[in-house]
Every structure is written in C-alpha cells, then in structure tokens.
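Long-time lurker. I teach an intro course on protein structure, and each term I like to show students one example going from raw sequence to a predicted 3D structure in token notation. This year I'd like something fresh instead of my usual example. Would anyone be willing to generate the tokens for the chain below so I can use it in lecture? Attribution to the forum is fine with me.
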Amino acid sequence: MNWDYPQPYTLPLVPRPEDIDGLNHTNNAVYVRWCEQVGWAHSESLGLSLEDYRRLDRAMAIRHGAYDYLLPTLLGEELTLGTWLVGGDGKLSMERRFQLIRNSDGATVLRGRWELVCIDISGGRPRRMPPEFLAAYMPQVVPA
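-- Reply from a regular --
Happy to contribute to a lecture. Here you go:
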C-alpha cells in the first residue's frame, strides 16, 4: 500500500449495510467514527486506554478535525485505515493523521487530520501532558 508516512497503525474495515447512505456510498459520518476507532486502538496499543485517561485526569481532545473525502466506498469493499502521530510539542498538543485505502486498487479514498490538545478531564482546561503520555506518544511521532 502507498502510505503517506511510514509504518502506520492499521485497522482493516469493510462497510456494512448500516454504513451505507442514500447514495449507496459509505456515509461520511462513518469515516469519522472509524477514525475515532483507529485512534483509540492505536493509543491502547501504545499502553494508554480510556481507563488510564480517567485515572490521570488527562485526555487528548480534538481541537480541530478535517477530512478530505476523495473517493466513495461501497458496501463490502475491503479497506485499510492507517493512522500516525505526526506532530507534537511535548507539552500540550499533538497531531494525528489518517489515510483510508481501498485494498482492491490501492486508491486513497480519505485523508484526515486531528489537532489534539491535552486537557484535564475534570475541568476541560488545557494542561501539560503527563509523563505517561509523553512516554507513550512522543516516540511514535513521525515527521510531518
């Protein structure tokens, strides 16, 4: 597959009947949900779960999300969604990117980007990333 960045964390996906909209394509909201799923799976693979976020009273919250819907996908098509951390200041912010590829022809059908900011869960205010976040996330950052 022709990935935008090296060594993505990947999730295989196949649109199901409930993912399809009135135009017989995968609904745009489904892509957003899939990005959330792969983001959490990647975080968990690095050793940080939602339970850890709650215990630390910290979370990486989406400050801005952007998606480029390049091509439609159809019911039953085999897809692979990749994600990377491509930026981080080591204090408050990180960036996560996404690329969805159709397996049959290698075409990129979606690109996405999240600007993330560390917040305290209890108050929703920006806070420095705790050492656990830095240890898990920062070694994974690839150059943008």
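Some talking points for your students: The CA atoms of residues 75 and 137 lie 34 Å apart. The longest strand covers residues 108-120.
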